[in-house]
Design brief:
With 425 residues, the chain is of the alpha+beta class. The protein contains twelve helices and 14 strands. It has a four-stranded mixed β-sheet. The radius of gyration is 21 Å and the shape is globular.
């Protein structure tokens, strides 16, 4: 393990413990929504995952407790039933995580002893996987905190950035032509980001920024939730059954829209990107505007491809890394607040604002090969999952890039998801 990988692991653990430190034991052990685990389950699951991959899979030791392979297996136990499992309490979970970290840092890995081990430790892949896994759970825990009816982080406030001017064009043209999608060069990329492959994309327009709260509110005011013509058949069925008529956490009042955010009620910021919309809502909104959701190939080309250089910009700029993934941030910045992080196409805010739904189903790229385990990506391939791109304000810079692929059911709204529209040229 290189010093930089050890530092990434330390940063991830600091972020986890800092996020949970203000919470009481009762808040950590309570299941705040059947959609989410008790926070203490996530805390111990993080440690169990680290022990599995940085100790046991590398041949550096045995399981702390064999029963953890059952209670902390996300595939064996859906979130709704995890409160009833024999899980560790808050202090025991912290102690477990600290003990596993000591074992991982002290492990002696002998190169050439096992081909599987050699593949895992090449370019420190497995250490990056574990650090990114912890950051991904921090984002999941932030979603859990948002679902709490009361309380939540006392420091939660608006994003720090505000656009100085609104002079960007509403949409940009991305010229037709092939580009290289995915990556073969990012040593920490997941299997679903590989292999790099050429994709020929026709001309298209894409919105310069994500849809704002004010823009989405106009869709609601125009009766968009009650008009069948904007919804897919399955989307309309969801709309009728759910009886929802606004993004999650929005509250209609006589004086305008408010929102519940980390246990507080506050005015809805007009220029922040809309959050907590599901794929069905994002798709209906795009149809109402006369546009559509971008495919994920279109999204990645707009976010990364530099036609002059013939390369893709696969990672964030230094400005991005300084702004996103901090525990001091509790929401997205206004759209257009960071012109220094403009994509080669001219699009803004494509990384680190809100997750952006795409039109694409989740599937493997041509030549896909599962590594290091099928359950990370392959078991989710299929039309029931839609791809999201770009990361959110809650996503750590280590855990996202322009090739990173997220996915979820089209009904999911508790995630920090929004919408950016596109249209044919």
């Amino acid at each position: 393990m290189t010093p930089s990988s050890a530092a990434e692991l330390a940063n991830a653990r600091h972020r986890t413990l800092e996020l949970l430190a203000p919470l009481t034991d009762d808040e950590l052990t309570t299941q705040h929504s059947p959609l989410m685990s008790p926070l203490v389950w996530d805390l111990a699951h993080i440690a169990h995952y680290e022990e599995l991959w940085l100790v046991r899979e590398l041949g550096a030791g045995d399981a702390t407790d064999p029963r953890f392979d059952d209670v902390y297996d996300a595939f064996k136990h859906p979130r709704a039933e995890r409160p009833d499992l024999d899980i560790l309490g808050p202090q025991a979970a912290r102690d477990f995580g600290a003990a596993v970290r000591d074992r991982a840092l002290g492990a002696s890995i002998v190169a050439g002893s096992d081909p599987r081990v050699d593949e895992l430790v090449a370019d420190d892949f497995v250490y990056g996987m574990v650090a990114r896994h912890e950051h991904q759970h921090v984002e999941t825990m932030l979603a859990t905190l948002q679902l709490m009816e009361t309380g939540g982080p006392a420091a939660a406030g608006d994003g720090p950035g505000h656009a100085e001017a609104d002079d960007a064009p509403p949409e940009i043209l991305v010229p037709a032509g092939p580009f290289v999608m995915g990556t073969d060069t990012d040593s920490w990329a997941y299997d679903n980001e590989r292999p790099a492959h050429a994709v020929d994309v026709p001309d298209f327009y894409i919105d310069t920024t994500p849809t704002t709260n004010a823009e989405y509110a106009r869709f609601i005011a125009a009766g968009g939730y009650d008009d069948l013509q904007w919804w897919t058949e399955s989307g309309w069925k969801w709309r009728q059954e759910s009886q929802l008529d606004a993004p999650q956490f929005w509250i209609a009042t006589d004086t305008g829209w408010m929102r519940r955010r980390f246990g507080r009620i506050e005015p809805l910021p007009a220029r922040e990107p809309v959050q907590h919309v599901c794929w069905y809502e994002a798709d209906a909104y795009a149809r109402w505007t006369g546009r559509r959701l971008p495919t994920e190939a279109e999204w990645e080309k707009a976010a990364s491809w530099d036609p002059a250089a013939g390369i893709g910009v696969k990672h964030k700029t230094s400005e991005d890394a300084a702004l996103w993934g901090s525990t001091a941030r509790w929401g997205p910045d206004d759209v257009g607040a960071h012109p220094g992080a403009t994509a080669p196409s001219g699009a803004l805010d494509m990384i680190g604002g809100v997750w952006e739904w795409t039109a694409s189903d989740f599937s493997g790229y041509p030549g896909y090969s599962s590594f290091p385990y099928r359950e990370y990506s392959e078991v989710f391939f299929g039309p029931e999952y839609k791809v999201l791109r770009g990361g959110s304000w809650a996503t750590h810079p280590t855990a996202v890039s322009t090739t990173f692929r997220n996915w979820d059911y089209p009904i999911r709204r508790q995630i920090f998801s929004g919408v950016r529209c596109a249209r044919d040229a």
